[in-house]
Amino acid sequence: MNKEESVKLMTDKMAKFVGHIGKKLPDDVIAKLEELAAQENAALPKVLYETMTKNQKLAVSLDRPSCQDTGVLQFWVKCGTGFPLINELEALLKEAVVQATFATPLRHNSVETFDEYNTKRNVGKGTPTVFWDIVPNDDHCEIYAYMAGGGCTLPGKAMVLMPGAGYEGITDFVLDQMTSYGLNACPPLLVGVGVATSVETAALLSKKALMRPIGSHNENANAAKMEKLLEDGINAIGLGPQGMGGKFSVMSVNIENTARHPSTIGVAVNVGCWSHRRGHVIFDKDLNAVCDTHSTVEL
Amino acid sequence: MVEIRGDKKVLITPVSADDLKDIKIGDIVWLDGDLMTCRDVAHRRLVEYGRELPYDIKDKAIFHAGPIVRKIEGTEDDYEMVSVGPTTSMRMEKFEYEFTKQTGVRVIVGKGGMGPNTERACKEFGAIHCVFPAGCAVVAATEVERIAEHHWDELGMPETLWCCKVKEFGPLIVSIDASGNNLFEENKKVFNERKEEAKKAIYPEVKFIK
After folding, report:
1. Mind telling me how many Å the CA of A79 is from chain B's nearest CA?
2. How large is the angle between the packed helices B93-103 and B40-47, nearest 10 degrees?
3. A113 and chain B: CB distance < 8 Å anywhere?
4. Do residue A64 and residue B131 have CB atoms under 8 angstroms apart?
5. What is the total count of domains within chain A?
6. Which CATH number covers residue B166?
7. Rounded to two decimals, what is the model's pTM?
8. Does the model's ipTM exceed the 0.90 cut?
9. Which of B70, B111, B194 sits opposite A184 (nearest CB)?
10. Listed range (A167-171, A230-234, B73-77, B124-128) with the worst mean pLDDT
11. Which domain holds residue A207?
12. Would you say residue B189 lies in a domain?
């Protein structure tokens, strides 16, 4: 395969992958939704979960995006310096989004700021967003693809607390955001929390936390404990499916963290909606692709 | 008009204020007839810039939604609905009182709650706000029989006014009724009380700064 053929192959695979995650939820999300739905007895949450389940089945049988808001595409790339297409990757991902936009189809979700027009191709200046992690002496490329919809993007918030506020302050920050904005963001939610040193470090981590599988835990024992405390606490609020009341509010709370300046605690929250469309794919140097989030896709 | 069809209460456009008077928050209703997608920019154009909507929605319904549509092959300008779920209604809250007053819309469908402007509009002009289960865009699309007209296409796919004919469109959960009662605001009171209890339970467990 020459370079041009390789680029085309990876572009086609990524376009197919992006289209697929718009139509089928990841295995962990489906399992968690089933678990939560089974525990609701009241009429309203039951009707809501039934409609949600029916929708996911229809999306597959009619081969359509399950939610009309297919988001702004975000890619979290962990790329080895020896991966053969490292130089072409960013342009290739943009092309894959355009391709998927017309093939799937996806909604046109890129509005150029200041000039304020929709590009009608679903890409624009800086979109799709590509976040890079470079891995020295490696020839693989891991990609998380995420459809960041408007509804679940709205509750995003970051701030810097004084250390006196402590982890109690983090608790207030996260829980307050759930009852003001979270309830409109299509619960049950996946809640990502970043605890770091400043707004941008915390914000980035809070989104990265949404890539982690449901049921996984932070490797730090205190952080893992806080994940569970926040999960139980937010569930006790009883937002229910669609924020209209029920026994649970969240699918999971994932915390990602770094060290901090002694004078600051950077904290941020980002949420994923019940229709949490993220997928993870790993390419080797020969462009063989393995997906570990969706048992339903062959690439 | 209101029709009871099996176990479904179906609103049929044109809907009158009288049709809505027995409908209360938390009720589930369905819709037959005219439903136009209408969101951020269309609200701004009407309310802030005074541009009249190119489609009459008096006694009809709007849907806070930006769909995915597909051109029907072999036609000049006809589209089919692929995927259409509700978007966050709260974004339209600042415009909705004036919007309802000027248009005479009766049924506003969207996602999540709305606030005091919309409550006031529903009460004064006889309208309701309903929630279509969010993220259920394929269910909604299959309840759209056809797109009859489309306007303001220059705004792009999500913001174009897609004028749909719908059949048993729902379930629609009534979140603000024509008396101005607000389901989300009532729920919020309970949620906030439970939240303060939850915080108190967490605080002693997270004293990591010694």
Report:
1. 32
2. 60
3. no
4. no
5. 2
6. 3.20.130.10
7. 0.93
8. yes
9. B111
10. B73-77
11. 152-272
12. no
